[in-house]
Amino acid sequence: MDIATDLQQRLARVRQGMAECGLGGLIVYYGAQHNMLRMDQVAYLTDVKTIGPAILLVPREGEPQLVVTPAWDAARAREIMPFGSVTGVEPAALARTAASLAAKLDKPLGIVGREVMPLGFAREFAAQFNVELIDAGDLVKKIGATRTETELERIVKAAGIADEGFRVLCEVAHVGMREYELAAEVEAAMQRLGSEDNFGLIAAGSHNLAIRAPTDRRLEPGDVIVGEITPGYRGFHAQLCRTFILGKPTDLQRQKYDMLLKALDAGFGAAKPGRPSNEIAAAVNKVISDAGYGEYCRQPYMRTRGHGLGLGGVVPYDVTEDGGPKLERNMTMVIHPNQYIPETGYMMLGDTVVIEESGPRPLTKTSRELHWRA
After folding, report:
1. Last residue of one domain, picked from the residues 143, 162, 183
2. Are 284 and 241 a contacting pair, CB within 8 Å?
């Protein structure tokens, strides 16, 4: 399916949600602070990843209107957005211009994205209206909880880029190389394949406490290199988590990594449509707890057992035992039993998957084994 048709179908689902909520018009805000764990609802409905704060106005009928900042970015947005109109303004005029256009929408008006508005802008924007703006909450996020064929194609592409990034990491890592140099090699390889973004963390050491941003530390023999590689491709991310040892792994390192392999299998076994996402975390934690590390199944020794992948699809959010939405067919997410282990330090293992009737299908293809090179 072409992107224009796919976007029209997303818009139709949004309008159905508006009708169910009794809304005549919808205001969608995003601040362009692009975040792997946050959905860009403007980009999801327009395919435009904006440079500055933007507002999309969705009428009950007719073409939507996109207001972008800065003004000169309107030409680019018009080339990308296959329908509707685009207005470019300077940031100081965004609230006034969008409110003027929104006045033509049918009432009542709903708004999404208010939680990411800067406080000053939120007050300025609200002051432009003589009617209450109804919080439409997760209207767009719920619609974007599952992937269409077109979206899934982009995530599969991002997953392949992540695989190549880790392949290059294993190929070029060498003693004396700085961590940031290794990260740059990974980044360059992925950009050559079309990555437009990367939430990349690479850490190395004999005993890592956690994953972190790369530093100027030089790689040493026997280093455990952990990588959380998350390229974005046309608005959608995929994540690959793996562990590479710069030398031959010890029996203890192999043993503890095998524990993560069992935990990942357990998490996959719980990831079925209709089951709540917290069952994934419970399954992973049970394996690690049964191995004697129950007290480490909490922060700061780990963060989550997986999460959704913005900017296009953030549901099911963080995967923890505290609860979560039910999994649905065609949801995409990363499942990862990343874990600090006192004997070996932090180790990583995780794949991006799509939820299918039979369970999760991995989209990242890198071997799950403990990677190493003597």
Report:
1. 143
2. no
Residues of the chain with pLDDT under 70: none
Q: Is 254 exposed, middle or buried (0-12, 13-18, 19+ CB in 10 A)?
A: middle
Q: How far apart are CA 148 and CA 368, in angstroms?
A: 27
Please state, in angstroms and rounded to a whole number, the distance separating the CA atoms of residues 222 and 269: 33
Cis peptide before 249 (omega within 30 of 0): no
Give me the sign of the Cα torsion angle 49, 51, 52, 55.
negative
Give the whole-angstrom CA distance, residue 316 versus residue 278: 10
**SS3 of 204, please?**
strand
Report d(CA 69, CA 101) in Å as an integer: 15
Per-residue pLDDT at 311: 77
Residue 157 and residue 139 share a domain: no
CA atoms of 312 and 2, how far apart (whole Å):
17
Domain end call among 101, 127, 143: 143
Amino acid residing at 202: I
Place of tokens 């992540």: 162
3-state DSSP of 230-266? CEEECCEECCEEEEEECCCCCHHHHHHHHHHHHHHHH
Contact partners, residue 171, CB within 8 Å, separation at least 6 = none
CATH number at residue 158: 3.90.230.10
81 & 225 share domain: no
* Together in a domain, 116 and 19: yes
Q: Which residues pair with 372 in a beta bridge?
A: 245
Same domain, 9 and 133: yes
234, 250, 242, 243: which is closest to 334 by C-alpha?
A: 242
116-141, pLDDT tens digit by residue? 999 999 999 999 988 889 999 889 99
Report the number of distinct structural domains present in the chain. 2
What CATH code is carried by the domain that includes residue 73? 3.40.350.10
Q: pLDDT per residue over 282-297, tens digit each?
A: 999 999 999 999 999 9
121 shares its domain with 166? no
> In sequence order, what are the residues at sequence separation of 6 or more whose Cβ sits closer than 8 angstroms to the Cβ of residue 258?
none
Q: 36: helix, coil or strand?
A: coil
First to last CA, the chain: 46
Range of the domain at 206: 149-372
